[in-house]
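Letters spell out the chain; backbone shape is given numerically. Take this protein:
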Amino acid sequence: VILGAYFACLIYIGFFKVRKQTQSQDEFILSGRRLSLGGFIATLVTTWYGAILGVGENMFRQGIQTWFIFA
């Protein structure tokens, strides 16, 4: 029941609240050009960290040639 209420709140916020705040797709993708330095650094670090883990996992599963494909 709690999980269902949580998802209902997420859907409400996603469909009704956010649609009123963004006017275009470019504004949504660029965050209205209001991203703080901390948010920008956090985004870069998490993207970099995810790429390192993803390549490492693929290399473990498929072999060393995967490193050459993704490098």
About this structure: The first helix runs from residue 2 to 21. Helices lie at 2-21, 25-29, 37-62, 65-70. Residues 1 and 7 are 10 Å apart (CA to CA).
